[in-house]
């Protein structure tokens, strides 16, 4: 009940509040609109739409506060620029406080999420295929491909000549190619 009374009071205050004469507001826009737009365009880093919105909001504030026009100042321009500047600052702070907006066309350029299911299936297939190799061939592939060692490093680790590491790698990959016919990039 208190809420409805408050809402009625707010509605009554809104309708009964004095407003700036529309003719005076139009005259104000004719005299200062372009200068205000140029000023706000600079504050918005050239964003014409945002500057136009700020000009409109500044004029709405002028309409809501007719007492500003009743001052003894020579020009309303300083008051309009101050209001516009404050509105621009408030708008910038509001934009900085929330996450950046994402344009719809940029969403179309986002790559699809990586499907880990395919990688997992491939890993299982490769593990199963590695079990079919001899211990010597498997050891060489583990050193070269899974541990990222060079031929010389694998040779030193396994205690075999570099030529043997090369030939075992060749024959192990060839055997895997037969067991895994669907994986053409395996020997790359």
Return Rg in Å: 37 Å
How far apart the termini lie comes to: 77 Å
Overall, the morphology is rod-shaped
Portion of residues in beta strands equals under 5%
Helical proportion, percent range: over 70%
Q: How much is the average pLDDT?
A: 81
The assigned structural class equals mainly alpha
**Counting H and I runs of at least 4 residues, what is the number of helices?**
9
Could you describe the largest sheet, including whether it forms a barrel? Answer: none
SSE pattern, N- to C-terminal: HHHHHHHHH
The count of β-strands is 0
Low-confidence runs (pLDDT<50, min 5 residues)?
1-14
Task: Describe the structure using short key phrases.
disordered N terminus; 9 helices; mainly alpha
Sequence-ordered SSE layout with sheet pairings:
Elements (H helix, E strand, L loop, with lengths): L1 H15 L5 H22 L4 H17 L12 H21 L6 H5 L7 H16 L3 H12 L4 H8 L3 H18 L9
Helix pairs in contact: 2-3, 2-4, 3-4, 7-8, 7-9, 8-9
Overview of this structure, please?
The longest helix has 22 residues, at 22-43. This protein is rod-shaped. Helix 2 (22-43) runs antiparallel to helix 3, helix 2 crosses helix 4 (77-97) and helix 7 (135-146) crosses helix 8. The protein starts with a helix and ends in a 9-residue tail after the last helix. It is built from 9 helices and no strands. With 188 residues, the chain is an all-alpha fold. Helices cover 71% and strands 0% of the residues.
């Amino acid at each position: 009940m208190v809420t409805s009374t408050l809402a009625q009071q707010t509605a009554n205050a809104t309708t009964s509040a004095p407003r700036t004469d529309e003719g005076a507001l139009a005259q104000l826009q004719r005299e200062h609109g372009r200068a205000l737009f140029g000023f706000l365009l600079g504050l918005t880093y050239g964003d014409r739409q945002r500057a136009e919105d700020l000009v409109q909001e500044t004029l709405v504030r002028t309409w809501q506060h007719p007492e500003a026009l009743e001052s003894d100042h020579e020009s309303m321009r300083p008051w309009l620029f101050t209001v516009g500047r404050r509105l621009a600052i408030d708008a910038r702070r509001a934009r900085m406080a929330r996450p950046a907006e994402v344009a719809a066309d940029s969403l179309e350029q986002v790559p699809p999420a990586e499907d880990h299911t395919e990688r997992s299936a491939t890993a299982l297939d490769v593990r199963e295929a590695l079990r079919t190799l001899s211990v010597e061939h498997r050891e060489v592939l583990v050193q070269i491909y899974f541990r990222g060692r060079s031929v010389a490093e694998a040779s030193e680790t396994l205690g075999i000549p570099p030529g043997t590491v090369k030939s075992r790698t060749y024959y192990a990959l060839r055997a895997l190619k037969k067991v895994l016919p669907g994986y053409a990039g395996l020997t790359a």
